[in-house]
Amino acid sequence: MAGLSNIDPKVVRLQIELLRQSSPARRLPIMASLSATAIGFLHQTLTQKLGNACLARIKWMRLHYGAVLAEQLREKSGP
Known about the structure:
It is a single chain. The protein has one domain. Helices cover 81% and strands 0% of the residues. It has helices at 9-21, 24-50, 53-65, 67-77. Helix 2 (24-50) packs across helix 3 (53-65) and helix 3 (53-65) packs antiparallel against helix 4. The model has no long low-confidence stretch (mean pLDDT 88).
C-alpha cells in the first residue's frame, strides 16, 4: 500500500504501535467503527450502481450471507 497514503510513514508506524499496545477493550470499538465505515461505503457504492437502496441491501446480503437470507430479505421487502 506504499504510495497510497498522504500520511507521514512515521505517523502511521506510531499509530500501529499505539494500536498494538492498546487493550482489546480499546481496540474493539475502533474495529467496529472501521467495519461500519467499510460496510457503509460498500452499501453506498451498490446503491449508486444499482440505483435502488433496497436492491443494494439485498445484493449486500447475498454477497455476505448467501442467497437464502438474501431471498428472505427480498420477500420481506416486497415487490
